[in-house]
Design brief:
The structure holds 2 protein chains of 2 kinds.
Chain A lengths: L3 H20 L2 H8 L6 E5 L4 E7 L4 E4 L8 E5 L1 H9 L11 E4 L1 H13 L4 H9 L1 H36 L6 H30 L8
Parallel strand pairs in A: 1-4
Antiparallel strand pairs in A: 1-2, 2-3, 4-5
Helix pairs in contact in A: 1-5, 5-6
Chain B lengths: L3 E3 L15 E4 L2 E4 H15 L3 H9 L2 H13 L6 E5 L5 H10 L4 E6 L2 H13 L6 E5 L12 E7 L8 H11 E12 L5 H23 L2 H13 L3 H10 L3 E8 L4 E7 L2
Parallel strand pairs in B: 4-5, 4-7, 5-6, 7-8
Antiparallel strand pairs in B: 1-9, 2-3, 8-10, 9-10
Helix pairs in contact in B: 3-4, 7-8
Classes of the chains: A alpha+beta, B alpha/beta.
Chain lengths: 209, 265
């Protein structure tokens, strides 16, 4: 079982980072005030822990222990949660995240957090001092860049495997060719429809008898 | 899930307190009526450097223990909170924000020097509108029955002469359904941690106290008083004896500190 001290440290770091970003973002603070009183529970699987995000008038409180009514509860792995948080629009289908309760609250909070420029270096510095904070933030950035690079490589390799090896998906060139043919077919159908309409509207030949 | 425990078994009030009119002051035995003035002497001496020493001694971890305490307190807007042995006001600052303008926080401490440092700190931080300050003894709290939604005592119970009497006093002034939280040093769960902690407490702490606060004796008392304080299960039994129900505790940092919770039914 995790020691509450560690969870409190994680909550404090997250809270510092989010509220540090909110300090310079009055628009997000204004949006946040409308969510005051709501509680979002983020239930992570692996590692198994739950964080509670509680918007207040000008800040977000992050807690590891909460007793009360939760507005929205999310359940999923950390990568699935991060992916959901970073996506432009809230799309739960296939996200690997289960949602219970109000999705409206989730959508509003997701937009606020996604728009924030979170300064992880400041958060770490406040907890550990200047030097350790800077080095920690550099390490985090390095890990982030590495993960980003691995993600692009993985996407490319997966695409090649599905296309070339399994032939379950068409290659990009084939797909583009197919789209061009569909476009041409649609244009030809439009022209045919216009011609038929013109023929139908033309006056019938006069009977001279 | 936090490392936490609860139980509801029969027990005797085996608090480890002597039964001959004396009590512990660290490892010394003193007359009960002398303990309060001796403890007062310690805190008059350390008050000015209390926050700095707390950060130094715990490496800042005391802030995380208090943060967890505030979470478990589950205080809501409009509620009344009593922060006993509130000292320099860390918990009161957090509670003031949570109870809001409609709520009330009372920062109480038996020691005038600590209370003055706490009051100055809160005023400097602009925490004034919903906080009141009171110099009082935890054994005889001057409030009507059923007055508070939540009572906390952080790193204070071990300095109280008659802990059973203090717990009964807290129980009396809590509203039904209200909760008591006792944050206090306790017994580490592993032998290795216990040995390291002993070395740190008796060798490093007094020297640190001498260097920073020019007072080795007070910090020697701190280490000794921690050893003499009831362990997790004993304190749990004492709370049940005082009438609290649903008692449980959370071990923090391997049991170096424990947070006990009890509800007045």
């Amino acid at each position: 079982m995790a020691d509450p001290t560690l969870l409190s440290a994680a909550c404090a770091a997250l809270e510092t980072a989010i509220n540090g970003a909110l300090r310079y973002d009055p628009g997000s603070r204004y949006a946040l005030a409308r969510l005051a009183g709501k509680v979002l529970a983020v239930e992570l699987t692996q590692p198994s822990l739950t964080l509670y995000l509680e918007p207040q008038s000008d800040r977000i409180r992050v807690a590891g222990h909460f007793e009360g009514e939760v507005t929205t509860r999310l359940r999923g792995s950390p990568p699935a949660m991060l992916s959901l948080l970073r996506s432009d629009r809230l799309n739960l289908a296939g996200s690997g995240v289960e949602v219970f309760g109000s999705t409206g609250t989730l959508e509003q909070l997701q937009q606020i957090i996604r728009n924030l420029e979170i300064d992880w270096e400041q958060a770490l510095t406040e907890m550990t001092g200047d030097l350790a904070g800077h080095q920690g933030a550099e390490a985090l950035r390095g890990v982030g860049n590495w993960l980003s690079g691995r993600q692009q490589t993985f996407e490319r390799l997966l695409g090649e495997y599905l296309t070339e090896e399994l032939s379950t998906t068409p290659a990009r060139a084939e797909l583009e060719h197919f789209y061009r043919e569909v476009d041409e077919l649609r244009l030809a159908a439009d022209r045919l429809e216009a011609r038929l309409a013109k023929n139908n509207s033309a006056p019938a030949p006069r009977d001279n008898d | 899930m936090p490392d936490h425990n609860s139980r509801s078994t029969d027990h005797s009030s085996a608090t480890g307190e002597p039964q001959d009119g004396t009590t512990h002051f660290g490892f010394q035995r003193v007359k009960k009526e002398e303990k309060a003035s001796k403890v007062a002497g310690v805190f008059h001496s350390v008050a000015a450097r209390y926050d700095v020493m707390n950060d130094l001694m715990s490496g800042g971890i005391h802030r995380l223990w208090k943060r967890f305490t505030v979470e478990v307190a589950a205080v809501r807007p409009g509620q009344k909170v009593l922060d006993i042995a509130g000292g320099t006001g860390d918990l009161s600052i957090a509670f003031s924000r949570l109870v809001g303008a409609e709520g009330q926080v009372v920062l109480a401490d038996i020691n005038e020097s600590m209370l003055r440092v706490g009051r100055d700190k809160l005023i400097d931080q602009g925490v004034v509108s919903n906080v009141q300050f009171l110099q009082t003894d935890a054994q005889a709290l001057p409030f009507a029955d059923n007055s508070f939604d939540c009572i906390t005592i952080a790193f204070g119970l071990r300095n109280v002469t008659d802990k059973d009497r203090a717990l009964a006093s807290m129980h009396r002034i809590l509203k039904p359904g209200g909760r008591l939280l006792v944050l206090e040093f306790s017994k580490p769960r592993s032998n290795l941690l216990s040995r390291l902690y002993d070395t740190y407490s008796f060798s490093v702490l007094p020297r640190m106290g001498q260097l920073v606060a020019n007072d080795a004796d007070s910090y020697r008392y701190l280490a000794e008083s921690i050893r003499m304080h009831p362990d997790q299960d004993t304190l749990l039994a004492m709370m049940e004896e005082a009438g609290f129900s649903g008692c449980e505790y959370f071990n923090l940092t391997g049991g170096i500190v424990a947070l006990h919770k009890g509800i007045k039914s």
